[in-house]
Protein: TetR family transcriptional regulator C-terminal domain-containing protein
Amino acid sequence: MVRTIDQEARRREIVDAVWRILERGGLEDASVRKVAAEAGLATGSVRHFFGTQAELHAFALRSLSERVGERVRRAAAEPDVRTRVVAMLTELMPLRDDTTRELRIWLEFVHRSRFDENLAAIVAEQAAEVRRFLTHVVTGLGELGHLCPTADHDEVAAGLNAFVDGLTFELLTAPALLTRERAFALLESFVFGHHMRNAAE
Structure:
């Protein structure tokens, strides 16, 4: 058990090193050698976990969604419906310093995925996972009476996805136009106001 924990901690150190390098200079700088130096490890130690640079990058990208998923699961334990739903959704948005950092890093991976089929497949997989999650949220809202009974849950989830992505993009690229507080209020209004209900009718 101790060895497993140590290995997981070492992988996290390596992933954190990839992220720091990416923030400074882009994913192309995150070679196994440079990541090892950033993490204060021997190159062989990194290669023990990741045989190639592609494996390292793929793991670092997947680690982003795993961290988000962990926080979403914790938020799902909130008993109040309104608080729970908004808390889960905000984990997908740059409303805190940690989520802002993660989403900026994710955008770097998205940029790189145009030239890397392996990363592109992971990005697509993550997008599909988010859509499934949002469909689950919408289905739950429907069961609680927050949507009209005839609502197409897939269609409403697609609209919610677009709304969340739109707020996220503006927060990351034009923060002078939208504060975190305003984005939070807009999200809450969209989900629990008349917007989603009207869109479904």
Q: What stands out?
A: The first helix runs from residue 2 to 25.
